[in-house]
Design a protein that fits this description.
about 30% helix; eleven-stranded mixed beta sheet; three-stranded antiparallel beta sheet; globular; alpha+beta
């Protein structure tokens, strides 16, 4: 089937070039024609699809952000009236309500078409631990699809659906993305509700998103990322911690593990592919910074070598106690091991994790994000069947620490190998930087590949700006600068630092009386002016009005001329502001003034 992006599909509906019933009929015909990749556990029939179609035919396509977009659901996520199996038939139940995220997507106009294959109880990164058969890679059926969200990834890569939902506890939303040339969003833990999801490790689980492009993933995230007060582990979207500002479009610094800390498990080609990606990020305006990856790796080992496996046991304890033989042998081996850890071991592991988290926090003083391979090597199915536990562990080398340390992460296509298999990397940063990662990941994908998933369709021209929205630049010169007291007013509105520059030499600069916080005033003059340091931030247009409304007199927003002659909205002071103010023009910047005062 020809891959269709969400953007193109919505355009076709809204211009009348396509009818929703026709598109869904063609989608289902393709899905039902054959499932040699072992993608699907349940496909909806015509009677199940009809209520969705009737609702959409009575609606205006322009009123629903995901009107008529078909999507797949990993079969550990509830869809009302359709069995949830978690890839274990004896465990299956039929929910009366859809999972919170699924319901949000349906209300936005998306159409669920079926439930997809997975590593049983979401335990694995391989896609082979299922009684419904090993899910095959979209490029080469001899190779792993990746797991546990195997079917969800392959359905998108083959162009059967425009996007899909997976889950990600240890890498299940990222490894399949690399193996199938997809964008894989591992959101900040708690940003997407886990209500209606069969838990693996309830304190760590997150719903994930597979899409063909960054803009498509952004559309889905915008609909799904709604706070669910009924989910005890949900968190509302907020400003990132550690004083981490928005990731700038240029001038960003990205961490890279030390060479001896990278692992490719005998693969000869992927090291070079990773080096190429580092060069591409540099060409996009970044600077590579070598970091100590040791604390991240130690945290990763805690997930399966520590007591967190007991959480997997707790999630299905009554079932495994009564029906252990119903589990896949490897799944049973792993989860049953969770019955033995003592409470004292759990506390000791929590203490060590807290120490490692504190060590990793220091990284963010030097970098805006970190980049790693998503997986070091792509294994064949027979290689994993011969050594199921160790090969799975290899695949988690760059993924297992992510939720333990509370990062947002994005798996991004990063090129193709000589054997035709895709290579991919993961970008990660502190919690709640999800949209910033998507914006940079979109640029990296476009610099690395030219096709959608496993199809021959080219990437569309659409690009993703800050937060996937129209933005308005605003120049700041004082308390709103990065790291200063009022910067949160920009970051809370999803503002992104676009550039650090200077004004044209046409301004006098004053330290105004009053505070806290202390504020400067920038006054345009006809003579005797100087260039003043400023930052230009891109603020979503939807947030700009509330930002301006909070600016107190005698300050305001006017047109400010930059050193290159361009004009942007920026902070300007009324001339009356100079009464009682201190002229600090000769210092040239607010930071210099603060340093002098100290």
């Amino acid at each position: 089937m020809t891959a269709t992006t969400i953007t193109d599909l919505l355009a076709a509906y809204r211009t009348g070039q396509l009818r929703v019933r026709d598109h869904l009929r063609a989608t289902m015909q393709t899905i039902r024609a054959g499932d040699e990749h072992r993608v699907w556990i349940t496909m909806l029939d015509e009677a199940q699809l009809e209520p969705y179609l009737e609702r959409l035919e009575a609606a205006d396509p322009a009123d629903l952000p995901l009107y008529g977009v078909p999507f797949a659901i990993k079969d550990n996520i509830d869809l009302a009236g359709v069995p949830t199996t978690a890839a274990c038939p004896d465990y299956a139940y039929t929910p009366e309500r859809s999972a919170f995220v699924v319901q949000r997507l349906i209300e936005a106009g998306a159409v669920p078409v079926g439930k997809t294959n997975l590593d049983q109880f979401a335990t694995g990164l391989v896609g082979t631990r299922s009684p419904y058969g090993a899910c095959h890679n979209a490029f080469d059926p001899d190779y792993l699809s990746g797991g546990s969200s195997s079917g969800s990834a392959v359905a998108v890569a083959l162009g059967q659906v425009a996007f899909s939902l997976g889950t990600d506890t240890a890498g299940s939303g990222r490894v399949p993305a690399m193996f199938n040339n997809l964008v894989g969003v591992k959101p900040t833990r708690g940003l997407l509700s886990a209500g209606g999801v069969v838990p693996a490790c309830r304190t760590l689980d997150t719903v994930s998103i597979f899409a063909l492009t960054g803009p498509d993933a952004q559309r889905v995230l915008d609909v799904a990322a709604v706070f669910d007060s009924d989910d005890a582990f949900a968190r509302p979207d907020r400003v990132p911690e550690f004083g981490h500002a928005a990731i700038p479009a240029t001038g960003f610094r990205f961490g890279v593990p030390r060479r001896e800390q990278l692992a490719f498990f005998g693969d000869a080609e992927n090291p070079g592919r990773f080096d190429t990606t580092i060069d591409r990020l540099a060409a996009l305006g970044g600077t590579a910074v070598e970091i100590d990856f040791g604390p991240f790796l130690e945290a990763a080992r805690l997930l399966y070598e520590g007591p967190w496996v007991a959480e997997r046991y707790a999630a299905i304890e009554p079932f495994i106690e009564q029906s252990a033989d119903s589990l896949h042998p490897v799944t049973r081996q792993i989860i049953a091991g969770g019955a033995t850890p003592r409470a004292a071991e759990a506390f000791k592991a929590q203490y060590r994790l807290a120490e490692l988290r504190r060590q990793t926090e220091t990284v963010w003083a030097d970098v805006d994000l970190v980049v790693t391979p998503t997986a070091g090597r792509h294994y064949r199915i027979d290689e994993v069947e011969a050594d199921p536990v160790q090969k799975n562990s290899d695949l988690g080398y760059y993924t297992n620490f992510m939720n333990l340390l509370d990062f947002a992460a994005l798996a991004v296509p990063a090129g193709f190998r000589d054997d035709g298999l895709p290579f991919g990397v993961t970008l990660f940063a502190p919690a709640f930087t999800d949209r910033d990662l998507l914006a940079l990941g979109d640029r990296l994908q476009r610099a690395s590949v030219d096709r959608l998933g496993a199809t021959d369709q080219p990437l569309p021209e659409e690009t993703l700006d800050a937060g996937g929205e129209h933005v308005i630049p605003v120049a700041v010169c004082g308390a709103h600068l990065s790291g200063l007291p009022l910067n949160w007013q920009l970051t809370q509105r999803r503002g992104r630092l676009a550039q650090t520059t200077r004004t044209a030499p046409e301004y006098r600069f004053y330290a105004l009386p009053g505070g806290p916080p202390e504020r400067p005033g920038l006054v345009r003059v006809t003579e005797g002016g100087a260039a003043i340091d400023v930052e230009v931030w891109d603020v979503p247009a939807s947030e700009f009005g509330s930002f301006v409304a909070g600016i107190p007199a005698p300050l305001g927003i006017g047109k400010l001329t930059l050193a290159d002659g361009s004009e942007v909205p920026g902070f300007i002071a009324e001339p009356i502001a100079t009464q009682g103010a201190t002229d600090i023009t000769e210092l040239g910047s607010w930071r210099s003034h603060l340093a002098e005062r100290r």
